[in-house]
Prior knowledge:
CATH class: Alpha Beta
Largest sheet: 4 strands, antiparallel
Distance between the termini: 9 Å
Structural class: alpha+beta
Radius of gyration: 14 Å
Shape: globular
Oligomer: single chain
Amino acid sequence: xxxxxxxxxxxxxxxxxxxxxxxxxxxxxxxxxxxxxxxxxxxxxxxxxxxxxxxxxxxxxxxxxxxxxxxxxxxxxxxxxxxxxxxxxxxxxxxxxx
Length: 98
């Protein structure tokens, strides 16, 4: 089956970088779901406070079902994360393996 990569790129509000890093550390330790092969967060080289989250799913079904797998703590952290990101800076990309 074809893998799916879901990527989210955004800019963090500069004065909230420390809070962002705290949220991300916890999020990385708890993000799990059936069919989610990996979850990573990267800083974008040459762009201050720009980060990219990469989710790799085993197949389209796992990707489609991912939102159903989130627990309460993950939802809380995602909401905190949204408050730390500059408005209108978020970009989404979904890649389907061929």
